[in-house]
Design goal:
This protein folds into 2 domains: 1-34; 37-162, Sandwich (Immunoglobulin-like). The chain has helices at residues 2-23, 29-35, 75-78, 91-100; strands at residues 38-44, 54-57, 62-69, 83-85, 117-120, 129-135, 141-146, 157-162. By secondary structure, it is α/β, with parallel strands linked by helices.
Length: 163
């Protein structure tokens, strides 16, 4: 009986140690949490809409934005991208500027405009997705994002708020 009690105690202690080991931080886990990206998934559709119009990020944090084109219309007629703009640049003004710079169905973001951009996905066709990773600006405020496929800027835009 004493042997059985000792064995039960040994098994219980062994399991407790194993559970504690699984819950213990591994390596530099707390530092890894500080570096973890904030992730946002946004869809664009055939009615020229982003499903997420606003999202918030922490100033200076790592951010990952994934754009998914959930539409069915071919890319040449209804491609989508997502362009995060620098502070003070409006989506409508940038979209008009993109048109004036020659944005088209195969190159929706002319090279000459990239100085106004924090990050941009590639142009996507149906069922395609692309992710961009960037560091959120350190200056709090509103930063607009937009689809620069010709004409889409009228409806496909939103705001990233940095806090």
């Amino acid at each position: 009986m004493k042997l059985l009690s000792s064995l039960a105690l040994f098994v219980t202690l062994g399991l407790s140690c194993a559970v504690a080991k699984d819950k213990a931080p591994k390596g530099n886990e707390s530092a890894d949490k500080d570096k973890a990206s904030q992730e946002v998934v946004i869809s664009g559709n055939d009615t020229m809409q982003f499903d997420v119009k606003n999202f918030e990020v922490k100033a200076g944090s790592k951010v990952k934005v994934t754009l998914k084109n959930v539409g069915k219309i071919p890319k040449i007629a209804m491609g989508h991208n997502l362009v995060v703009l620098k502070k003070g640049i409006t989506a409508v003004a940038f979209g008009q500027k993109a048109l004036g710079a020659g944005a088209n169905a195969t190159n929706a973001l002319p090279e000459s405009l990239k100085g106004d951009v924090i990050a941009a996905t590639k142009l996507l066709g149906p069922a395609e997705s692309d992710s961009i990773e960037f560091t959120a600006p350190k200056e709090p405020g509103s930063y607009e994002y937009v689809c620069t496929f010709p004409g889409h800027f009228a409806l496909m835009r939103g705001t990233m708020t940095v806090k």
